[in-house]
Amino acid sequence: MWQLADGYRIGDIVISHTDLIDSGGTLLIGDRGTVVGALSVNGENELLCEFVNYALASLSSDQVEQEVSPGRALAVQGPQLTTGVQQWQLGGFRTLAK
Question: How far apart are CA 39 and CA 4, in angstroms?
């Protein structure tokens, strides 16, 4: 898969963090879509995403959130999270037990 800006890849599932209603369709916060490419708008790299009710949306990476599929690890940097559940270490990643 092609690696895009901010760690996104073509085929990644994303969740919209923005509302967009125009001639392209209707995109609402929480809608799921698929990254299909990237482009540059006014010198800024954006993701080209396809949604069910919006054909192709050009969105910055802060307008979407990557949906993590089962088995795909996320590395979290910064302060430790306190969740009240048992935590265990796996290969350098902190994993929260279910």
Answer: 10
Report the C-alpha gap between 32 and 30 in whole angstroms: 6
Number of structural domains, the chain? 1
DSSP 3-state of 1: coil
Q: What domain range includes position 22? A: 5-69
pLDDT tens-place string over residues 46-72: 999 999 999 899 999 899 999 876 655
Beta bridge partners of 48: 37, 58
Cα distance between residue 21 and residue 1, in whole Å? 30
